[in-house]
Structures are given as structure tokens and as C-alpha cells.
Amino acid sequence: MGFSIDLLPAFADNYIYLVSDVALGLAMVVDPGDPEVVRRALQKKDLHLALILNTHHHSDHIGGNAKLQREYGAPIIGPTLEQHRIEGMARAVENGDLVTFSDLRGQVIGTPGHTSGHISFYFPGLKALFCGDTLFSLGCGRLFEGSASQMWQSLTTLRGLPDDTLVYAGHEYTEENGHFAQVVDKDNLDLKQRLADVATLRRKGKPTLPVTLGDEKKTNPFLRVDCPDFQKSLAKNGFPVDGTDPAAIFGALRAGKDRFDSGTKTL
Asked: In the annotation, is 179 catalytic?
């Protein structure tokens, strides 16, 4: 199978993902917020758009749906719980469903929290996870519609995928997330190395994604809230931890990130 994945920067910090079957000249796109970015990439690579995948309903992820569908006739697949908020969907999917593109088979994983019906797409054949705004490198999405318990369960589910899974998140937030991570997890040597690598990539104008899920498990504080060592690190660094319930700790950590001032690096 000759597939490629292109990261298409859009807006201030979004990533749109274009998955191409080079031999057939076909492509699918994940979360096409900006149609012109996608059109230029398709024209440059001489590809026909065959499928549109949406992880959730926010406009910076679906804004290009209508134009791309009109031009290429590509069907739109998105979350069942958000089908009333995404126009033109040909198929609504939920946790456990399968999607296909060329010879690829993708698994739909329910990942509510950022929005009520957010889903992620995992393609084992590509070792690729398209997780929208649920999981970011060194961070996770804000809780706009879901609860802390929902988001923690979603992250736990994604954390259960193989370590060599490549995380394709919806935004370039890694460096910003790293400011918070290093405050709450100061003694994490893996995190220090990741931050150094991220700084080098950003100085060169390169993306910090994809990143392996194995690296995220070692460095992302939001995936480590049930780790006793991390819980001790939180307490040591002055972060209020009440008990050992992971969902509660996650909720407190997410609230702390919402309050965090990256300029002064204070909680």
C-alpha cells in the first residue's frame, strides 16, 4: 500500500490532514477547516478527494466541508451525536464503527469531552490516530461541552492504543502546552528531552506532530494523572491534589491549565 499523510497548516495553528493513495490518485481529508488549503494540496499532488472525515462540529474543523463536497462530490462522515450540527453528512458514525478509504480500515473511537459527540479515527494500517481536539501533544482539549470524567475516559481509551501509534492532533499547541507541563512535572526527564526537541523543531519552523503515543504516555501530564509518581510530583510542586481518584485529579489539572499564565508560568 502506498499511502502518504500530509500536514496542511491552516489558520493560526490548525492542522488539516490529507491522506493519499498515491497509486489510485485518491485522497481523504480529516477536519478540513479551510477549503482552499485542501484544494491547493490536491491540485499540487494531482489527487481527487474521495472522502471527508470530521472529528467534531467546530467551524475550524468543518468550515471547508461544503465547498469541497460541491467541487469533488466527496461524502462527509462525522459523529452521530453531532449530525444536527454538521451539514451535508452522508454517514453518521459512533464508537465501534468502521470507515474505509481505499484499502484502509479505520476504527471510530468515541472521545467526548471537548464536545459532546467528539470522535477520533484510528487507522492501524497507517499506525495513525486522528484525534481532533481531544488529545494534543503534552496536553488535551478544553471541556467545552463534556465533563472531566468523560474526557478522562476518552484519554484513557486513546492511551490504550499501541505505543507506536502516531498522534495527529488538530492543533500546533505543543510548545504552549509544554509551559504548563514543566511546571506540574518538573522532575520528568523524558519531558525535559521532549521540550528540548520541540524547541528545536519550532525554531526551524517545523511541526511537532506527529508524535508517538508512547512518547505522550511518558510526557503528557493529562495521560499521567493515575501515575503515583506524577501524583507525588503534583503535590511536591504545590498543585492541589485531593485524593487519588484519576478523574478528579484530571479535572483539577484541566482547570489549572485553564487558569495557567504561560507568561509568568504561574497556576
From this structure: no
